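Hi everyone, sorry if this is the wrong subforum. Our group has a chain we'd like a structural model of before ordering constructs, and none of us has done structure prediction before. Sequence below.
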Amino acid sequence: MNHNRREFLRRTGAAGLAAVSLAGRGRAAERAEGRAARGSTGLPAGWRTLRKLDAHNHVFTPVQRPNADWAEVENLIEAADALGIERLYCSRPLTGGVLASIEAVREANDSVLAAMKRYPQRIAGYCFVQPGNGPAALDEIERCLAAGMIGVKLYNQFKFTDPVVFPVAERCIQHGIPFLGHSGFLTDPRALAQQPKASHALDFCALSRRYPELLLIMGHVNGGGDWEWAIKGLRDCPQVYLDTSGSVLEADTIERCVRELGHRRVLFATDGTLEGGVGKILAAQLTTEQREDIFWRNFQGILQRRRT
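Answer:
Right subforum, don't worry. Here is the predicted structure as tokens:
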């Protein structure tokens, strides 16, 4: 979130979002959308008032500290207001490949808890943990849930096939909470060197087969390497959800997700790319029911399964 994004939303509004959402689409697709009872901008009528739950976002500023700068979080809320996003489900992962101390993990989660307290109707939290912290990671999950968080977020310090992850998955099952994971099918050697333990679709499938009752979400289909491969990799593990976030805005992503997996496994999310995240759902060829399910109803169903 930054000043440029705020200016974009303020100056361009729906017309600017239309340009983003249709980026990369051909003239034929634009004409087809125009015939589908859309407004002059190429967007569905009333798009801003469609209910939207962002299932994957972040708070990065350590706002629990005295005299914290709240600008990042305030900008996030302002952008969500402009785009009609009702609620943002956020974490603050530690993104380095080295295992962090449990104290550093707690500090990261405390930032999210502070943002939740400041914006209780707009921000909800995932508890970030590193399974390598052992029993302390499970204690941190309990602490975060008691403070009002709704799920668990893992980054890429451990592959989802690593047995060290299993106790975290079991704790999520115990509470009936969603388990969101960073993902990427990386083919670039430089990216692989930076994230050697990043999990891809088949890692998520392996964990899901071990724990079919786990509410497992593969994060950012458009945020890590070959997204077409990632979608196909989930075809044979129907218990895994995937979220639509990521800064790649290629045409046909959402239609491919729905075609390969069915729309009820697809969750709207932005991972910080709010305009494009909303735009690619609006630009996709979906029925009204499919669009509403992806924007909010599917994730709402997951949240209603919590036992905490």
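For your construct planning: Confidence is low (pLDDT under 50) at residues 1-12, 18-40. The two ends are 32 Å apart (CA to CA).
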